[in-house]
Amino acid sequence: MGSTDVNRRDLIKRATAAGLVAVPAMGVLSSCATGGDGDNGDKGVTGGKKTDDNPLGVNKDAGLDFVIFDGGFGTQYGKDAAKIYEQDYGKVKLTATQKIRSLLQPRMVGGNPPDLIDNSGAEQMDNPTLAAKDQLTELSPLLDAPSVDDPDTKVRDTLFPGTIEMGQYGDEKVWCLNYAFTVYGQWYSKKLLADNDWEYPKTWDEMLALCAKAKKKGIAGWTYAGQHPYYIPFTLYPFIGKIGGPEALKNIDNLEPNAWKQDAVKSAFEAYHELAAKGYVLKGTPGLDHIQSQTQWTKGKCLFIPNGSWVENEAADTTPKDFGMAVGPVTGLDASDKLPFGTLWAQAGEPFIVPRDAKNAAGGMEFLRIMLSRQSAQNFSKLVKSLSCVAGATDGLDMSSGLASASKALEDAGDNVLNPRLFDWYPTLHKQQIGSVLAELMAGRTKPADAMNKCQEYADRTAKDDSVKKYKHA
Q1: I need a labelling partner for 231 at 20 to 30 A (CA). Which of 41, 281, 293, 383 fits?
Q2: CA dihedral 189, 120, 170, 373 (to 10 degrees)
Q3: Which CATH architecture has domain 183-346+421-464?
Q4: Each residue of 255-283: pLDDT tens digit?
Q5: In whole angstroms, what is the distance from residue 76 CA to residue 80 CA?
């Protein structure tokens, strides 16, 4: 951790207080304090004067320290926004990494965090815990500031519905800004289906029949990121919601007793288990990471992969030009489903945070205000082939195949858009525990009933853990 005047015991205490180290008994981050008010005390640089051109009062002489996650969206959109920021404010130091926690934990503990963090990836820090431990700047000043494009319109009024809510954890305060608007679902190649005269399956019987046809041609039905099984819920959660309605997912999010034993969960687990039992999952999938599974998919080795709309950019190097990348809504069970075909999981993702101890918190929020301009939002979509959280930013844009598909799927879904929260309210439960159970289910190593019991056991354990802050849907 380098030279420091803080001894190791103090560092451990401060790390625990910041919610950055795991609790040994559960492997989860403790979370019990209330959130702060966003006041950075004497930690920050002296602010600048608030004006029409500088509504957040950024000190124009202060530099900005920005750490961006170098993942599926790359970093160019951040570099481009930095150039705009530097036209009016100080120099931006941009650091790209895939090791968010490893790089930033010492700085968060030491009271010297960056001014802005793209808190994403496998090493994502736990945002609810950071908020609960008073480690984040509250972002209402940003949301209530005038937008870059229209001074008469607040930033909050330019965003897709649900964006602000994704940054809230149990109250009205907003602790993070989720920049990308991700469409999750069954990603596929339009060309592969068209070349074989295959129709996209709407019911599970149609899914199994299609997988059987594909298997005869040496093509698997599904693959997924076996090393990161929390990708499986990108289709499984909306499948449960389609079968049982929004309440089925809300029960899971709310850690209700027997939520994982609902009929909708039973039906969904049995359906996914059948994919493995019938040999419709690409051989070797449990050992593949996200890049390897995506590469097998773009090579035409399988029909479907559960993923989010970042995949078009992330898999660009291996995707044939005529692939026709597209996302489809989850295949349903049958006519008894509570929600119609077309139901989607779509929500704001890729969370950006401004640490409470940031030296230039106002600059961090101003950088986000620039990113939320139409110019930056369109640039993001052009570069990474994904929607941003800025509503209407892609209007008139010449969109790639996957981006156009995601935009249309979102439009077609109408009000049937699901917004599960387990993954960000309880990331350890979602990623490590539920993920491990789903890995066993999809590999055919555990039966649906046993998987349901194990998921419920993990959920009950979280519900009873007083060190984990609890959240509820309204």
Answers
A1: 383
A2: -80
A3: 3-Layer(aba) Sandwich (3.40)
A4: 999 999 999 999 999 999 999 999 999 99
A5: 6
